[in-house]
Structures are given as structure tokens and as C-alpha cells.
Design a protein that fits this description.
The protein is α/β, with parallel strands linked by helices. Among the domains are: 1-130, Rossmann fold; 425-594, Histidine kinase-like ATPase, C-terminal domain (Heat Shock Protein 90, 2-Layer Sandwich). Helix content is 50%, strand content 18%. It has helices at 18-30, 41-51, 67-76, 94-102, 115-127, 137-141, 167-176, 213-231, 245-249, 254-258, 271-382, 387-421, 433-443, 445-448, 469-489, 524-527, 547-557; strands at 10-14, 34-38, 55-59, 85-89, 107-110, 145-150, 180-185, 204-209, 238-243, 263-266, 429-432, 452-458, 463-466, 498-507, 510-517, 561-566, 577-588, 591-594. Strands 12, 14, 15, 16, 17 and 18 form a 6-stranded mixed sheet that branches. It has a 5-stranded parallel sheet with strand order 2-1-3-4-5, sandwiched between helices. The radius of gyration is 55 Å and the shape is rod-shaped. 32% of the residues are buried. The protein binds adenosine-5'-triphosphate and magnesium ion. Residues 477, 480-481, 543, 547 line the site of magnesium ion (MG). Magnesium ion (MG) is lined by residues 477, 480-481, 543, 547. Residues 354-587 form the Histidine kinase domain.
Length: 599
């Protein structure tokens, strides 16, 4: 026995007759098939499931499970469904053949047929390709298209003419079976034209064949046409030849298989058996067509899915870009409001400086004159005068004291205005931050009272080179504001209770300080306005609204920033406000030095 190689077609032969099995085996092995034999249907089933062959050749008459039952079992199993089955029978009666084909066999051959013919039939089955699906419901709904190609009429006189093919009757039978049947006369022109490919191409061509060279040539031309259809990605039609009975038995019909025919039957075959074979061939073509359709659909679905995925990715990228755009826009708006604020401060600074100067001069001599008037009135009291004059002098003195208080307030306001407008003039000095903070808290002690606890968490270096205004005005005003906010929260008469937390740290080249309280906090709508000069919520005469405006300018002069957020101190009374001050610093041997404009 020649060695089995992976490329050899693997065949399982199920044949109980040892002699016949040996005879067939000899031929098949010689022809290059890798053969496994089984003696019964049950044994055959086991071998098939184990070896998964390319083809099964089974006898119809088997002990126990019949060939038809075996074929049915194979067709029921998804794994073995696509293995082609060739049935062998001793009995050529159409009933047996019909049973074999109906059970799912693909082709049928008599045991008495020449072994070469069997080999040719096997090769034709293997040629059909692996995607042989059972016809599903969709395919069953479509009528198969059968074309009967009759020999040309002028051949009628010739010797080999097939006279006994009952063409009309076959057509009728197929038509009753539910096929679409067309009967045409053979001519070489048939090969041309588009009818053999495309959506309406026939499933099976039934060829009436004589013995002339013309018939073989026609078969070859048809086969070439099938190849072309295959190469163009289509499913080629099947061909079945009806050959004159005596020629079929003379075994010279093998050349038709070589010319590409799929199945060959003798002209004296029972009509029913012939119809059965045609149906089997047509159904296999339809099944392949269906499979290809499904494959195209699958590919289209995959493409649609891919397109949808790409679309989703694009949408995601777009959303991402939109988010970045929104973020940039937000930053732009912030930068813009900062610019507006800076410009506002600059122009206000000039205006305020002018007003302060104008007020300061008359204020200076008014205060000086007020002092002179006070001294004059005191001297008048020493002079012996009438009671009435004494009473008037006293009244004048008391009004003068009130005037002095008013003048004092004007003087303080002018001082604030001058500080606000002349920040650039103050120089940078080394400041001991904790000590400066203690001084500020001592100055504010009256405002803080006994109920307000001040906590300090100072982690930044103690010494900082900056404008003293940073601590004297900015920090002091923020602490003073926090004390006011806490006082607003407490009920009348109660001791003000609250907490102020001052924290500092050096981070990423910035000196950061935060001052938080647990007061009522700042509503969002006020946050953009509190840095405006003269913005205050305090009663008239209590606040000037300049504290945070000055703070903003001081921070500007340091190239730093001031912002307000919710404080949310743990265990605090209210949400509270948190003012964050951030100064860029460069580190020197002496410690951090603020890198402001004036530095
Ligand atoms: N810690 C805080 N909690 C609640 N509101 C605050 C706080 N700090 C400031 N504010 C609000 O910001 C406003 C502006 O403060 P700013 O210091 O500029 O002016 P002022 O304190 O009203 O007056 P001035 O400081 O000139 O005496 C205040 O009137 C107050 O409404
Ligand atoms: Mg204030």
C-alpha cells in the first residue's frame, strides 16, 4: 500500500461484502485515495466521526443500519453534514436509488458499474468543494432552474443518437416537482451570452449526449465556462449528462467526466431516478449559492459594523475636542476677566490718586485750622465772658470735636486711596511672616474677640522677601473680613463664635497662603464683584469696599494671584470662604524671594 500523505483525499468505504470491498479498495488505493474500510453502518459511523473523511462511499444494503439511514445520520450532524456521500447498490431499481438520494446521498452508482466510472464519479463529487450545505428553508423557497439541452436535430439520423430519452416527459416531471424547466436545442452559441452567469443563471444543465467528438467538445466548453464563473466569484451551474445506455455500459463514458460533467446516467434510467439526481445536483448548487449569499451578507454586516465603530470613534474624538474647546474657552474667559480687572484697577488707580491728592491738600489745612479754632475757643473760655457767650463757646467746641472725627475719617479714606494707587512705590523687604501675622492678629484682637479661634498651619519658610503690604494690608484685610462675616452670623448680643485657619506652604515655586473661615461663605454671584473697588455689602460708613481691591492690586504687583472658594472647614458652622494667595518666588540662599513686577 502506498504511504498516506496529507494531500490525499480521505475516503471511508462502508461495504459488508469482503470480496467487493477488496476489489474497490485496490482500485481506490491505486488511484491515490487514503482509504478506511468499515463493514457495517454502525462501524462506518464511528470511523467517519473519528477520521472526518473527504468522501463516504456506502453500500445501500448493510447489516443493521442501512446505507440510507447512515446517510441521514450524517446529514443530521453539523460536523458531518458537508461530507459528500456516494451510494453503491446492486439493485438498479429507481425505488432504491430514490431512497438513497432522498436520505441525503449526493450521488448514486451501481455496484456493477466499472470501478473507473466510480472513481470518476468520486472525483466529480470531490471537485464540488467543501461548502456543501444542506439546503435550508430559504433555498427551498426558490425554485431551482433546470435547463434541458437537447442534441441538435440534424444529428437525428446519426448512429449514436439518443432516441429513447423521454425529454418532454422529464421536463413535465421536473416542472411538477417544482422546478423551472427550460428546454433548448444545443448549439455552440449557447456557451456565449450572459445567461450562464448572473442572478438568473441555471442551477443545473441536463445534457443529452451522443458519442461524437462534438458532444465532448461541448462539455469541455461548458466546463471552461464554469471555471470562468468560478473565477469571477460566482457559483457555477451543475451538469448532468444522459448518455446512450449501451455506450454508458461500454465504459467509454468516462471521458465525459474528464470533460467536466458532474453526473452521468444511462438513457434507460428510470425517469424518477433521473429526476431525483437532477434535483440533488440543483439543490447542491442552490445551497452553495445560499452559502455565498450569507457570506456576502456577513461581510457587508462586518463592513457596516466597522463603519459604525469608526463613526462612534469619530463622535468620541469630536466630544473630546469639544471638551477641550470648552476648557480653553473657560481659560480664555478667566484671562479676559483678569485683564479687564487689571485695566479697571489701573485706570481707577490714576483717578483715585488724583482725587486723593485734590482732597488731601484742603484736608490738611482744614485739619490744621480745626486745631487752631479749638485752641482759640479754649482761650475764649478762659476770658471773663457772659454766660451766653460761654454756652455758645461750649457748643462750638463740641461741634468742632464731631467735625474732627469726620475729618479723621476723611483722612483715613484718603490714606487708603493713596495706598491703593501707589502700590508700585513700596519696596520689597525681608519679612518675618509668622511675626507679621502675630502683629496683624494683635491689631485685630478687638474685632476677633474671645469667641473666634485662629489656627495656624504655617509650613512655608518663615522669611519671605516681598512688599510689606502683602501682609499688612492683604492678609490683615482678609482676616478682618472673616471676622466681620463671622460677626454677621452670630445672634444679637451673643459672643461671636467662629474659626479662622491660616495655612501656608511652598509648592512648585510658589508661596501659597490660604485664609479660611467657617462663616456664611460667599455667594457665587458676588465672587466676581468683591475685588471691584468700592464694592461692599457692609452698612454705610462701616466698609469702604477697598480692602479686596487693594489686595488684588498688591497681588498683581507680586505677579501673583488671589482667588476665593468655599472653605468647608471640618466641623465648621457655615460653608465659609477661603481666600487663596499665591506668589511666584525664586529660591535664594536667604530664602524665597517674590518675583513681582517691582522686584
Ligand atoms: N470672609 C468673607 N466672608 C463673607 N463675605 C466676605 C468675606 N470677605 C469679604 N466678603 C465680602 O466682600 C466684600 C468686599 O470686601 P472688601 O474687603 O473689599 O470691602 P469691605 O470689607 O466691605 O470694606 P473695607 O475692607 O474697605 O473696610 C465685603 O463687603 C463682603 O461682602
Ligand atoms: Mg474689608
Amino acid at each position: 500500500m502506498p504511504p498516506v500523505t496529507p494531500n490525499m483525499p480521505r475516503v471511508v468505504l462502508v461495504e459488508p461484502d469482503c470480496d467487493h470491498a477488496r476489489k474497490i479498495a485496490r482500485v481506490l488505493v491505486k488511484e491515490g485515495f487514503a482509504l478506511t474500510c468499515a463493514r457495517s453502518g454502525e462501524e462506518g459511523l464511528g470511523t467517519i466521526e473519528e477520521t472526518m473523511p473527504d468522501l463516504v462511499v456506502a453500500c445501500t444494503e448493510l447489516p443493521g443500519m442501512s446505507g440510507g439511514q447512515l446517510a441521514r445520520r450524517l446529514r443530521l450532524d453539523a460536523l458531518t453534514r458537508n461530507i459528500p456521500i456516494l451510494m453503491l447498490t446492486e439493485d438498479a431499481s429507481p425505488g432504491v436509488e430514490r431512497e438513497g438520494l432522498e436520505s441525503g446521498a449526493d450521488a448514486y452508482i451501481s455496484k456493477s458499474a466499472h470501478p473507473d466510472l466510480m472513481v470518476l464519479r468520486m472525483r466529480a463529487l470531490l471537485r464540488e468543494g467543501p461548502e456543501l450545505l444542506q439546503v435550508d428553508e430559504a433555498s427551498r423557497l426558490r425554485r431551482s432552474r433546470i435547463v434541458i439541452v437537447n442534441s441538435p436535430r440534424e444529428d437525428e439520423d446519426e448512429e449514436d443518437v439518443v432516441e429513447d430519452v423521454p425529454e418532454t416527459t422529464l421536463g413535465e416531471l421536473l416542472w411538477r416537482d417544482g422546478h423551472t424547466v427550460t428546454s433548448i436545442e444545443r448549439s455552440d452559441d449557447l456557451i456565449e451570452g450572459g445567461w450562464l452567469r448572473g442572478a438568473d443563471s441555471p442551477d443545473c444543465l441536463v445534457l443529452e449526449l451522443g458519442s461524437g467528438e462534438e458532444d465532448l467538445k461541448f462539455c469541455r466548453l461548458l466546463d471552461a465556462r464554469r471555471q470562468a464563473v468560478l473565477e469571477a466569484g460566482g457559483i457555477p451551474f451543475r451538469t448532468l449528462g444522459i448518455v446512450e445506455a449501451s455506450r454508458f455500459r461500454r465504459q467509454s463514458s468516462g471521458e465525459f467526466f474528464e470533460a467536466g460533467i458532474d453526473d452521468l446516467v444511462p438513457s434507460d434510467i428510470a425517469l424518477e431516478a433521473l429526476a431525483m439526481r437532477i434535483r440533488t445536483l440543483a439543490q447542491r448548487r442552490m445551497a452553495q449559492d445560499e452559502f455565498r449569499q450569507q457570506e456576502i451578507e456577513r461581510q457587508q454586516n462586518a463592513l457596516t459594523l466597522e463603519a459604525a465603530r469608526a463613526k462612534a470613534e469619530m463622535a468620541e474624538a469630536l466630544a473630546q475636542a469639544n471638551m477641550e474647546l470648552a476648557r480653553t474657552n473657560e481659560q480664555l474667559l478667566q484671562a479676559q476677566s483678569k485683564l479687564v480687572q487689571t485695566a479697571k484697577m489701573a485706570s481707577l488707580g490714576e483717578l483715585v490718586a488724583g482725587i486723593a491728592h485734590e482732597i488731601n491738600n484742603p484736608l490738611a489745612f482744614t485739619i490744621a485750622h480745626a486745631d487752631t479754632v479749638t485752641r482759640t475757643l479754649k482761650r475764649l473760655q478762659g476770658v471773663n465772658a457772659s454766660d451766653e457767650a460761654m454756652a455758645l463757646t461750649k457748643k462750638g467746641m463740641s461741634r468742632l470735636e464731631s467735625m474732627k472725627l469726620g475729618l479723621q475719617r476723611i483722612q483715613n479714606l484718603v490714606l487708603s486711596l493713596r495706598r491703593f494707587s501707589r502700590l508700585d512705590e513700596s519696596s520689597f523687604q525681608k519679612v518675618d511672616v509668622p511675626a507679621a501675622l502675630d502683629t496683624a492678629l494683635a491689631l485685630l484682637a478687638h474685632k476677633l474677640g474671645p469667641g473666634i479661634v485662629v489656627e495656624k498651619d504655617l509650613q512655608a519658610p518663615a522669611e519671605l522677601v516681598c512688599q510689606p503690604a502683602f501682609l499688612n494690608q492683604v492678609v490683615m484685610n482678609i482676616i478682618s473680613n472673616a471676622a466681620d462675616a463671622l460677626a454677621d452670623m452670630s445672634a444679637d448680643g451673643d459672643v461671636v463664635r467662629g474659626r479662622i485657619v491660616i495655612a501656608s506652604r511652598l509648592e512648585n515655586g510658589r508661596y501659597e497662603m490660604s485664609i479660611s473661615d467657617d462663616g456664611p461663605g460667599l455667594p457665587h454671584e458676588l465672587r466676581t464683584r468683591i475685588f471691584d473697588p468700592f464694592f461692599t455689602t457692609k452698612p454705610v460708613g462701616t466698609g469702604t469696599g477697598l480692602g479686596l481691591a487693594i489686595a488684588y492690586s498688591v497681588m498683581e504687583a507680586h505677579d501673583g494671584a488671589i482667588e476665593v472658594t468655599d472653605a468647608n472647614l471640618p466641623g465648621g458652622h457655615g460653608i465659609g470662604a477661603c481666600f487663596r494667595l499665591s506668589l511666584p518666588v525664586r529660591m535664594t540662599e536667604e530664602g524665597p524671594v517674590a518675583t513681582g513686577r517691582a522686584a
